Amino acid sequence: MTALLLLLLSLPGVALADAASFLAVEGPVADGFDLPQDSGGLTVRTAAAGVVVRAGFDEPGRGAVEIEHTWYDSTGKHRTRSTYGGLERVDVAAGESLSRRQAVGAMPSDAARHRLLQFQLSDSAEPRAFIQAHGSTFVPADEPVLLLLDPASDSLTWVERGEAKATYSVAWGQLPGAKREEGDLRTPRGLYFVVSKARGEFGGTYGAYYGGHWIKVNYPGPHDAVRGLAEGWIDEATATKINERWAARKLTPQTTRLGSGIGLHGWAAEWDDAESRGKSFGCVVLHNRDIAALYDRIPEGTAVMILSGD
Q1: Which residues make beta-bridge pairs with 196?
Q2: C-beta neighbour count of 20 within 10 angstroms
Q3: pLDDT averaged over 10-residue windows placed end to end, the chain, 310 residues
């Protein structure tokens, strides 16, 4: 019996120092993952778009193909390698860019009756579950507008269809590091989406600190829900709702211990770029002139990625 071996090697998330490293990819970006085999056939297809790093025969009749995939999720940018072994025929070559579901080769005919898919992940996750959970993934170049925020450089980069257009200075929460829970004075890290906007005069004790503009995002997101479950702060039903609402680019639950009320806004007065640390209660602060200029160009649904590189 000939087996088809699919090895999905999940590498650690790429360290993101700036917008350029986040956007830079070699070959196509994966927009999701699939099982690698046609139902009822011998053709083997790539699990996701990527670049072939190895293709050939280890011995006669036993071909193998290894593909590297670049993909994004709510935590950032990742690379995953898939390996397809036990092939009778190899249809691709090293260095070739492949689209999703493109044929990479075929299994021997005697494998048609007894097909066996063996999945392994370096982090011991079950590959079928990984593929089912990543049927669709975020593609920065598909976004009309992406706000890419980098704590390492205290900057917001305006990105259109994957191309950086302009950069603005920003400030952060009063304490360094990623937000974990309500009231910790930290700015979240990860991918979120704009869910509401308002401008004008804001009431309340802190209304003046918005600088006349408020752009809310849907924190918490999926990776925050994982943390909430692990800490016992939310239940499975709430985690599911967070995932579903986040994916729909809608407001996620705002009353859990994970916190809420995160967005982008101006400030009570002009501030110096050297004062970018320790300013807000967890939101991203822009210069009033910048948020006023960008406000109308940021529709609801806009993707906001806050990098982890600080």
Answers
A1: 216
A2: 12
A3: 42 50 92 77 87 90 88 92 87 97 85 44 61 92 96 93 93 94 97 97 89 97 97 98 98 98 95 79 96 97 89
Residue recorded with tokens 């649904």: 301
Q: What is the CATH number of the domain that holds 114?
A: 2.70.70
Q: Which of 90, 123, 138 is the last residue of a domain?
A: 138
* Number of independent structural domains in the chain: 2
User: Are residues 111 and 252 located together in one domain of the fold?
Assistant: no
Q: Same domain for 200 and 295?
A: yes
114: helix, coil or strand? Answer: coil
Do 283 and 148 belong to one domain?
A: yes
Quick check: 26 and 58 in contact, CB under 8 A?
A: no
Identify the domain containing residue 103 by its residue range: 4-138
Here the CATH number for the domain that contains residue 261 is 2.40.440.10
Tokens of 216: 């809310």
Which H, E and C letters describe 219-258, residue by residue? CCCHHHHHHHHHHCCCCHHHHHHHHHHHHCCCCCCCCCCC
Phi and psi angles of residue 70, each rounded to the nearest 5 degrees, phi first: -105, 130
CB proximity list for 289: less than 8 A, separation 6 or greater: none
Which pTM does this prediction carry? 0.89
Residue 172 pLDDT: 94
> What is the distance of C-alpha 126 from the center of its chain?
20
Rounded to whole angstroms, the Cα distance separating 260 from 238 reads 14
Choosing from 138, 164, 199, the residue where a domain stops is 138
pLDDT at 13: 36
- Asked if residue 234 and residue 301 are part of one domain, the reply reads yes
Beta partners for residue 168, in sequence order: 156
